[in-house]
Design goal:
heterodimer, A: alpha/beta, six-stranded parallel sheet, 11 helices, B: 581 residues, alpha+beta, four-stranded antiparallel sheet, 5 strands, 70% helix, P-loop_NTPase (chain A), nucleotide-binding (chain A), kinase activity (chain A), kinase (chain A)
C-alpha cells in the first residue's frame, strides 16, 4: 500500500509546478521539503500512519468520510479544528484527520498549524521547523520554502514559525485572507485544515472563523464541561459548524505497545 | 437524540467510571459494620414473670381496702424500686458497671441501670363482671434486667424480683393498716363526741326538766287538774265559811260559863267570879271607907289571895267598860252637881281607883289569863268553830299552793317552745353522730377484716411463676441485623457517593450528552488510545495504592488490636458471629 501511494505521489509530483503569482505565494510541491519522521516517535505521538489498520484507525476514517461528505456537498475546502480548552487532543485530531484525508487517492491535504499560542503539529511529526506561517505574515517569506512533507503522500504541513504577539490581528489580516483564498483555489481536490487554539481561552479561532468554510469542535471525554460546550456552541452559532468529535472516549479503550 | 433519557448502559458506565466512589465507601462502611457487629458487647437479659393473683375470698364477702388497679400499683412499686438509694444499693451489692463507675457520674450510671430494667405488663382480654363489657386486664407482668454478664443479670433480676414482691406486700399491708387505723381513730373520735353530746343533753334536761317537750302534756294535764282542784277548793271554802258564820252566831248566844249551883241551891261562885265580885265591891268599899277599914283590908286580902290563886286579877275589858261607864256617869253628874258633891267625889274616886286597877292589871303578868269556859255546849260549838277556822286556814294554804303551782306550770308551758328548739338540736346532733358512729364502726370492722386479709396474704398477691434464669443467648445486639444493615448502608453509601460525584461533575462523558446539548450527535467517536507507558503508570499507581491501603490496613489492625480489643478475641467473636449466621 505504501509503495502504491509513493508511486501515485511520484506520478503526481511532476505535474505540480512552481508557480509564483503576484502575491508571491508559491505553493508548489516541487520545493517541498520532505521530512521522514521516526516511526517510533509517530507511534508515541499517536499519529495514525504509524499504526496498522485497526479499530482506532477506523474511527478516524469514519470521521474523515463524514467530514468529506458534508464538505463536498457544501463545496467547502477549508476546515478549522478547535476545542473548548487545551489538552483536548485538538492538534492530534487535526493531524490524524489530515493524514486520513491524504489517504484518499484523489485528494491532497494541507495541514496549517494556526495555533500560535501552543504550536503542536511540528512536535507531533518530529519536525524541526524554523520558519512558518508567522514568517510569511511578518516577513513575506515564501510559502513554498516552509512547506514540509512528513513522509506521507499528498500531505503537506505548514508550521507556525516564530511566536507572534498579535496573532489574532495577523490571522485577520488581508494577507492571511488572501493566503487562504489562494490555498483554496490552487487545487480543486485539496482540503486545508487549520489547527486552531481553544475557542474559549483565545479569540484567535473566533476571529478567524469567518475566513474558513467550516469549524470542527473537538470534545474530550471527562474533560470538556457541559457549560463550556454550551458556551462554545453559543459563540459559533453564526459559523458553519461541520460537527463535533468525541475524543478520548473511554468506552472502548485501545491499548498499544 | 432519539433516546435522550439515560438508560442502564449509561448508569453502568457512570458506575464504571466512578467505581472508586462506589468501592471505597462500600468497603469502609461494610468494614465498620463488621467491626461494630463483632465488637459490640453482648447483652444478656434475665427475666422473671410474676402473676397477679386475685384474692382468694370473693370480693363480695370481703372487700380489700387496696383498690388501685394492678398496673398502677406495678408502676408505683417500680418507681419505688428504681429510686436512687435502692439502685445504688444494688449497684454496690453486685458491683455493677465497675468500669463505668470509675469514669462516669452516678447520675449517668443510674440512668443506664434504669434503662436496663424493664417492667412489662401482660394483659388478657376479660369480661368486666359488673358492666359485661370486654376489657383488658393485667394478669401478670415480667421484670427483666439486661447486663453484659448473664450471671449478673440473673442475680440482679432475682434481687429486683424479691424487692418487688416485698414492696408489694409492704405497701398493701401498710395501706390496709392505714385504712384500719384511720377508721378506728375516726370511730374513737365519734365516740368521744357522742359521750360529750350525751353529757350536754343530760345537763340540759336536768336544767330544763319541766320545760321539756315530753313534760308538756303532763304539765297541761296537771294544770287542768289543778284548776279543777281550785274550783272544788272554792266550793269547800264557801261551805266552811258558811259553817263558821253559823257557829259564830250560835256561839254568841251561849254563855261560856254555865251557872253551877251547889246543893243548897246557891250559886257556887268559882274563884274567878268571887274575884270579879270582890273587885267590883272593892272600889265601892274604898269609896265608903278608908283604906284601913277592916272590911277594906279584908276584901283587899281576899282579892290578893284570889289573884294569887287564879294568876290574873281581872278582865281588862270589863274594867275598861266599867271605867268608861263610870266616866260617863261622872260626866252626867258633873253637869248637875259641883265637884264637891259627894256623888261626884265618890264617882271620881271610883274612876281613879279603876284607873289604878287598870294600871295595876296591866302591870301584872297574869292579865290575860281568862277563865276556862265550862259550858259544854259552848265548848262543843267553840271547838266546831275552831275546826271550821282551821279548815279555812288549810284551804287558804292549799289554794295558795295550787296557785303557785299553776303559775309555775304556766311559766313552764310558755317557755317550752324555746327550750324545745335547743333540745331538738341537741337530740338531732346526737342522733346524727350516733348514725355516723355506727357507719364508721361498721367500716372499721371491714377494714380490720381487710387488714387481716392482707396479713394472712389472702388478698390479691404477686406470685413468682417464672423465676429469673441465667440467660444462655444474648438478647442484643442483633449482629445479623447490624451486618445486614451495614451491608445495605454500604451499598447505599457507595451508590449515593457515586450519584453525588456524578451530580457534582459537569464534564461530558457520552455522545448522548453532546447530542442533548447541541441537538446533533458527534461526527465520530475516537476511542482513547492508551500507550504502554500510561498503562504501566496506571499499574504502578494501582500497586502504590494497594500498598498504601495494606499499610493503612495493617496500622488500623494494630491500632484496633491495642486500643479496642485484641485480635484473637476479635477473631473468636467473629467466628461466633459467623456461627450464628
Amino acid at each position: 500500500m505504501n509503495s502504491i501511494q509513493t508511486l501515485a505521489d511520484k506520478s503526481q509530483q511532476p505535474s505540480t509546478d512552481v508557480d509564483a503569482n503576484s502575491d508571491g505565494i508559491n505553493i508548489a510541491y516541487s520545493q517541498t521539503r520532505v521530512h521522514t519522521p521516526d516511526k517510533d516517535l509517530l507511534k508515541r505521538n499517536r499519529i495514525i500512519s504509524a499504526f496498522p489498520a485497526g479499530k482506532w484507525l477506523e474511527s478516524y476514517r469514519m470521521l474523515r468520510t463524514r467530514c468529506l461528505q458534508t464538505m463536498d456537498a457544501m463545496e467547502w475546502k477549508t476546515l478549522a479544528i478547535t476545542s473548548t480548552s487545551t489538552q483536548s487532543g485538538n492538534s492530534l485530531t487535526a493531524a490524524n484527520l489530515a493524514i486520513s484525508i491524504a489517504m484518499e487517492l484523489d485528494r491532497t491535504a494541507l495541514l496549517v498549524d494556526a495555533n500560535f499560542q501552543n504550536p503542536a503539529i511540528s512536535q507531533l511529526f518530529g519536525i524541526k521547523a524554523e520558519v512558518g506561517l508567522s514568517d510569511y505574515l511578518l516577513r513575506d517569506t515564501e510559502i513554498s520554502t516552509m512547506l514540509i512533507n512528513p513522509g506521507i503522500d499528498r500531505l503537506v504541513i505548514l508550521p507556525t514559525g516564530k511566536p507572534m504577539l498579535n496573532s489574532t490581528e495577523m490571522l485577520r489580516s488581508p494577507k492571511m485572507v488572501r493566503l487562504v483564498g489562494e490555498l483554496k483555489s490552487r487545487y480543486p481536490s485539496r482540503i486545508i485544515i487549520f489547527d486552531m487554539p481553544p475557542i474559549l481561552s483565545h479569540d484567535d479561532t473566533l476571529g478567524f472563523s469567518p475566513y474558513v468554510d467550516c469549524v470542527l469542535l473537538v470534545i474530550e471525554e471527562g474533560h470538556t464541561k457541559t457549560d463550556e460546550l454550551k458556551h462554545a456552541a453559543e459563540l459559533l452559532k453564526d459559523t458553519n459548524v461541520l460537527g463535533t468529535v468525541f475524543n478520548k472516549a473511554t468506552d472502548n479503550k485501545i491499548r498499544f505497545d | 437524540m432519539e433516546n435522550q433519557t439515560p438508560d442502564i448502559k449509561d448508569y453502568l458506565k457512570i458506575v464504571k467510571i466512578r467505581r472508586k466512589f462506589l468501592i471505597i465507601p462500600f468497603i469502609v462502611i461494610a468494614l465498620l459494620s463488621v467491626i461494630l457487629a463483632v465488637v459490640l458487647p453482648s447483652v444478656y437479659r434475665s427475666s422473671a414473670t410474676i402473676l397477679i393473683e386475685e384474692q382468694e375470698i370473693p370480693s363480695e364477702l370481703v372487700k380489700s381496702t387496696v383498690t388501685t388497679f394492678a398496673d398502677q400499683r406495678i408502676q408505683i412499686i417500680s418507681q419505688r424500686i428504681m429510686s436512687r438509694s435502692n439502685l445504688v444499693d444494688i449497684i454496690k451489692k453486685y458491683d455493677l458497671y465497675a468500669d463505668d463507675r470509675k469514669t462516669e457520674t452516678e447520675e449517668k450510671i443510674l440512668e443506664k441501670m434504669r434503662k436496663s430494667i424493664k417492667v412489662e405488663t401482660i394483659s388478657a382480654d376479660v369480661i368486666d363482671p359488673r358492666s359485661g363489657a370486654p376489657t383488658k386486664a393485667t394478669i401478670a407482668f415480667s421484670l427483666a434486667f439486661d447486663d453484659e454478664s448473664p450471671a449478673l443479670a440473673q442475680r440482679v433480676t432475682n434481687e429486683l424480683t424479691s424487692l418487688f414482691l416485698k414492696e408489694n406486700i409492704k405497701s398493701r399491708t401498710q395501706s390496709a393498716e392505714n385504712a384500719a387505723m384511720f377508721l378506728s381513730e375516726e370511730a374513737r373520735r365519734l365516740k368521744d363526741k357522742i359521750q360529750q353530746l350525751q353529757t350536754t343533753l343530760a345537763e340540759f334536761k336536768e336544767k330544763n326538766l319541766h320545760q321539756l317537750p315530753e313534760a308538756n302534756q303532763l304539765n297541761q294535764q296537771e294544770l287542768t287538774s289543778l284548776n279543777n282542784q281550785l274550783l272544788s277548793l272554792d266550793s269547800q271554802e264557801r261551805s266552811a265559811q258558811e259553817r263558821r258564820f253559823y257557829l259564830e252566831g250560835q256561839l254568841a248566844q251561849i254563855d261560856p260559863n254555865a251557872l253551877a249551883t251547889n246543893a243548897v241551891g246557891n250559886r257556887v261562885f268559882d274563884m274567878k267570879d268571887r274575884l270579879k265580885e270582890l273587885q267590883s265591891q272593892y272600889p265601892s268599899l274604898l269609896a265608903r271607907y278608908s283604906d284601913n277599914h277592916p272590911d277594906v283590908l279584908k276584901v283587899k286580902k281576899e282579892i290578893e289571895s284570889l289573884q294569887k290563886e287564879i294568876g290574873s286579877n281581872t278582865d281588862l275589858n270589863k274594867l275598861n267598860a266599867e271605867l268608861t261607864e263610870k266616866k260617863a256617869e261622872l260626866a252626867v253628874l258633873l253637869k248637875q252637881y259641883s265637884e264637891k258633891h259627894p256623888d261626884v267625889v265618890k264617882l271620881q274616886r271610883q274612876v281613879s281607883s279603876l284607873q289604878q286597877a287598870m294600871v295595876e292589871s296591866r302591870q301584872s303578868e297574869y292579865a290575860n289569863s281568862s277563865l276556862e269556859p265550862d259550858n259544854p255546849a259552848y265548848i262543843t260549838l267553840k271547838s266546831q268553830l275552831e275546826a271550821a277556822n282551821a279548815d279555812l286556814k288549810s284551804l287558804a294554804f292549799t289554794r295558795e299552793q295550787i296557785k303557785k303551782k299553776i303559775e309555775e306550770l304556766r311559766r313552764n308551758l310558755m317557755q317550752a317552745p324555746l327550750v324545745e328548739k335547743d333540745y331538738m338540736d341537741l337530740v338531732q346532733e346526737l342522733n346524727n353522730t350516733n348514725q355516723r358512729y355506727q357507719e364508721v364502726s361498721a367500716r372499721e370492722m371491714e377494714a380490720q377484716i381487710s387488714q387481716q386479709l392482707e396479713v394472712e396474704k389472702k388478698g390479691e398477691r404477686f406470685t413468682l411463676i417464672d423465676p429469673p434464669q441465667e440467660p444462655l443467648e444474648p438478647v442484643s445486639p442483633n449482629r445479623i441485623a447490624i451486618l445486614f444493615l451495614g451491608f445495605v448502608l454500604a451499598i447505599a453509601g457507595g451508590f449515593g457517593s457515586v450519584a453525588l460525584a456524578e451530580m457534582m461533575d459537569s464534564t461530558i462523558h457520552s455522545e448522548k450528552t453532546i447530542a442533548n446539548i447541541l441537538g446533533v450527535a458527534p461526527l465520530a467517536t475516537i476511542p482513547y488510545l492508551e500507550s504502554q507507558q500510561e498503562n504501566l503508570a496506571l499499574k504502578r499507581r494501582r500497586l502504590l495504592l494497594l500498598m498504601g491501603l495494606s499499610i493503612a490496613g495493617i496500622i488500623a489492625v494494630t491500632v484496633f488490636h491495642f486500643v479496642i480489643m485484641p485480635l484473637d478475641v476479635f477473631w473468636y467473636k467473629l467466628l461466633r458471629v459467623t456461627g450464628t449466621l
